[in-house]
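Hey, quick one: can you model this chain's 3D structure?
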Amino acid sequence: MKSSDSISDLLTHIRNAMRAGHEKAELDASKQREAVVKLLAEEGYVAGYKVVEAEPQKQLQVRLKYDGQGEPVIGGLQRVSKPGRRVYKGAAEIEPVLGGMGIAVVSTSRGLMTDRQAREQKIGGEILFNVW
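Sure thing. Here's the predicted structure for all 132 residues.
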């Protein structure tokens, strides 16, 4: 079944896989989903990812990351901008997530970036989701 909101679908797959204690989450790949997972990997929230050739569509395998006690590194995922209600912020309006303990993923004219990168480069955009 195709979802009209691929980002929410990605976040739900990751959230459910973490709660179940799985090593990885697997779902249909897209350029946008791959960019989001790449950003999460760069920030240390997931262990890594890879795109696997499959029929009828490529699959995105996300390796989840856990701490020493087996707890997921990701404490929470919250969708901000939704298909029915887009949330746009200027660079000065983007607030830190949990006082800087988490990140907001922002879709800008220069691609996806964290809230910190967007503020440093003085670029606003659509706030996709928060992760902590």
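One thing worth noting: Residues 46 and 65 are 5 Å apart (CA to CA).
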